[in-house]
């Protein structure tokens, strides 16, 4: 069966890690006899440079006609002086909206072979395996009005936080569903002691929870959640929260592992194509040097195979190959202080391909 995959390399190291992903997808297709039709599109700064806007209509059309979308990274100092509506990041926000990607999943798992890279003590991080489920289409990032104006001789800025009951319910249900598939524990994060939107959020969680009697759930204020992620991350299984809180908490949680270069993410809709991307940025300081860590992007490919393409065996094989490479001591520059032994992006991808070939058996 043919599967259409749109790849949006974007900016900075995006093209390099997406090239690694393309090689791995091609090999998985060969091993498992899949027909992956891969097409590239423009997004972010690359699109601005090419046609003057961060999200071309052609890219939206390409993604809507695909089964899944893989993104490299967007943004960089080259475009920092542009007005907010014209910056690369606006292209990503617009794509999420166009595809109705309402659920962002960010797994945080400790690789035993990389535990020494974490800034936290071993007894705190050992066994950490949590999933942050972030709402993507509402909240401060999309609320209107959004403006700056003079009022009584004083310049003010206005952002509006808006959530509907329907938006909250669909992300909360996704959180409960994922908790059912994992360890059956869900933590809902809000700021209900201050925000009306969070009070509505908490009400909806209590209502939806009745449909999932096998899931143990609790509410936690976002400031406490930020503290608990550092104090005792093992207490969490699935965390579900609104857009801005999820943005902040997932970046905090990522540092538990010791490297942003290791963590993938998935953004899912009700039924359309999912968007998969590493959570690291475009890293313009190392772009073009061939030293970027491709593993977060390759783990994002594993999530794509599992969540959207319905290929769990292939996903497991790829993640196992990544784990084997790390267990065998191979590192990119961000994972080791020994620069002489650090592998390039291409070399690390080669190692994953070798491990994939060795550990995969198809009848």
Automatic annotation (TrEMBL):
Domain Isopropylmalate dehydrogenase-like, chain residue ranges per copy: 4-352
Reactions it catalyzes: (2R,3S)-3-isopropylmalate + NAD(+) = 4-methyl-2-oxopentanoate + CO2 + NADH
UniProt EC number: 1.1.1.85
Matches recorded under SMART domains: Iso_dh
Keyword Amino-acid biosynthesis recorded: yes
Keywords from the named record: Amino-acid biosynthesis, Branched-chain amino acid biosynthesis, Cytoplasm, Leucine biosynthesis, Magnesium, Manganese, Metal-binding, NAD, Oxidoreductase
Cofactor comment: Binds 1 Mg(2+) or Mn(2+) ion per subunit.
Amino-acid positions noted as binding NAD(+) in the UniProt annotation, renumbered to this chain: 76-89, 281-293
Main location: cytoplasm
Gene3D superfamilies: Isopropylmalate Dehydrogenase
Subunit structure: Homodimer.
Role played: Catalyzes the oxidation of 3-carboxy-2-hydroxy-4-methylpentanoate (3-isopropylmalate) to 3-carboxy-4-methyl-2-oxopentanoate. The product decarboxylates to 4-methyl-2 oxopentanoate.
Family label: Belongs to the isocitrate and isopropylmalate dehydrogenases family. LeuB type 1 subfamily.
Name of the protein in question: 3-isopropylmalate dehydrogenase
Lineage: Bacteria, Bacillati, Bacillota, Bacilli, Bacillales
Designated gene of the protein: leuB
């Amino acid at each position: 069966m043919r599967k259409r995959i749109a790849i949006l390399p974007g900016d900075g190291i995006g093209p390099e890690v997406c090239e690694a992903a393309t090689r791995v997808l091609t090999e998985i297709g060969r091993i498992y006899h899949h027909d992956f039709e891969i097409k590239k599109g423009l997004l972010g700064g690359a699109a601005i440079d090419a046609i003057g806007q961060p999200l071309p209509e052609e890219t939206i059309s390409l993604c809507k006609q695909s089964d899944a979308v893989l993104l490299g990274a967007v943004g960089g100092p080259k475009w920092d002086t542009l007005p907010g509506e014209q910056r690369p990041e606006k292209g990503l926000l617009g794509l999420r909206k166009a595809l109705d990607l309402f659920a962002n999943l960010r797994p945080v798992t400790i690789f035993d072979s990389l535990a020494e890279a974490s800034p936290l003590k071993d007894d705190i991080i050992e066994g950490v395996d949590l999933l942050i489920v972030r709402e993507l289409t509402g909240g401060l990032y999309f609320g209107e009005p959004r403006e700056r104006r003079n009022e009584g001789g004083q310049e003010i800025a206005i952002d509006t936080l808006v959530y509907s009951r329907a938006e909250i319910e669909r992300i909360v249900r996704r959180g409960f569903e994922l908790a059912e598939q994992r360890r059956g524990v869900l933590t809902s994060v809000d700021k209900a002691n201050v925000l009306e939107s969070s009070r509505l959020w908490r009400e909806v969680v209590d209502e939806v929870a009745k449909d999932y009697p096998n899931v143990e759930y609790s509410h936690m204020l976002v400031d406490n959640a930020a503290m608990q992620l550092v104090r005792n991350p093992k207490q969490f299984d699935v965390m579900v929260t609104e857009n801005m809180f999820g943005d902040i908490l997932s970046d905090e949680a990522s540092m538990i592992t010791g490297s942003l270069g290791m963590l993938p993410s998935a953004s899912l809709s009700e039924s359309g194509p999912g968007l998969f991307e590493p959570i690291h940025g475009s890293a313009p300081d190392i772009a073009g040097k061939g030293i970027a860590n491709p593993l977060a992007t390759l783990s994002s490919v594993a999530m794509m195979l599992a969540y959207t393409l319905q290929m769990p065996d292939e996903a497991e094989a790829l993640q196992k190959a990544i784990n084997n490479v790390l267990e065998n001591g191979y590192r990119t520059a961000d994972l080791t202080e020994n620069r002489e032994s650090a592998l390039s992006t291409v070399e690390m991808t080669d190692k994953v391909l070798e491990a994939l070939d060795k550990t995969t058996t198809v009848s």
